[in-house]
């Protein structure tokens, strides 16, 4: 079971995508995915804003093998730059969904709607990769966070996610 979409993913070790016109770009540290590996890696950082910010969308950029990037708000006090393997999903118990993709490359909210990122929020970016090749792949993901053009007249939106970590599908 997986998510999917119709947009082509771009980005990676070649260099960053263009900066957003009204927002910020976040570069997720480079990592290597072994041949045949299916892994989710999570990276912690602090949202560097002294004020709450409403965002109208985000764009995710991953090279080949990328499956998704999801942003969470962590309830933990984890040092910036910490990277963990979060493939098993148990770490997500203390995280709140923040930026979920409507397809694999991001999310764009309707005009007048926004998702609030609190000032100095602890963020976690989850990058999921499936390396179907026989060679290791180096990855470098980027996220463009687009600020809502009108920060004063926003209807708040909230992401929702449901995970089942013990799903078993019998053979045949």
In one word, what is the shape?
globular
Q: What is the H-and-E element order?
A: EEEEEEEEEEEEE
Mean residue pLDDT = 86
Q: Report the end-to-end length measured between terminal Cα atoms.
A: 15 Å
Keywords:
single chain, five-stranded antiparallel β-sheet, six-stranded mixed β-sheet, 172 residues
Question: What does it look like?
Answer:
The protein has 172 residues and is mainly β. The chain is built from no helices and 13 strands. It has strands at residues 23-27, 31-33, 38-46, 53-61, 66-74, 83-85, 95-99, 106-108, 113-117, 122-130, 137-139, 142-147, 155-156. The strands form three sheets. Strands 1, 4, 8, 9, 12 and 13 form a six-stranded mixed β-sheet that branches. A five-stranded antiparallel β-sheet has the order 6-3-10-5-7, with no helix packed on it. Strands 2-11 form a two-stranded antiparallel ribbon. The model is unreliable at 1-13 (pLDDT under 50).
């Amino acid at each position: 079971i997986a998510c999917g979409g119709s947009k082509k993913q771009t980005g990676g070790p070649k260099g960053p995508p263009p900066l957003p016109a009204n927002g910020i770009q976040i570069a997720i540290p480079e990592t290597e995915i072994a041949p045949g590996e299916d892994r989710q890696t999570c990276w912690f950082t602090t949202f560097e804003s002294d004020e709450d910010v409403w965002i109208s969308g985000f764009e995710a950029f991953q090279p080949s093998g990328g499956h998704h990037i999801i942003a969470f708000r962590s309830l933990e006090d984890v040092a910036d730059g910490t990277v963990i393997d979060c493939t098993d999903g148990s770490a997500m118990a203390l995280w709140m969904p923040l930026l979920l993709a409507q397809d694999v490359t991001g999310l764009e909210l309707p005009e007048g709607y926004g998702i609030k990122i609190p000032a100095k929020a602890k963020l976690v970016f989850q990058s999921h990769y499936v390396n179907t090749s026989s060679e290791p792949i180096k990855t470098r993901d980027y996220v463009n966070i687009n600020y809502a053009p009108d920060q004063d007249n926003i209807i708040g939106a909230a992401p929702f996610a449901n995970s089942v970590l013990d799903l078993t599908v019998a053979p045949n």
